[in-house]
Specification:
Strand order of the largest sheet: 1-2
Helix content: 25-40%
Number of strands: 2
Number of helices: 1
Distance between the termini: 19 Å
Order of helices and strands: EEH
Shape: elongated
Strand content: 15-25%
Length: 25
């Protein structure tokens, strides 16, 4: 797992790998 990124509001932290999986379906 790589580092996490801030989803925008400071509360929703998501993993980069998970995020990339979602946008590369």
């Amino acid at each position: 797992m790589r580092t996490t990124i801030d989803a925008g509001n400071g509360n929703d932290i998501i993993n980069i790998d998970s995020y990339l999986s979602l946008i590369h379906i």
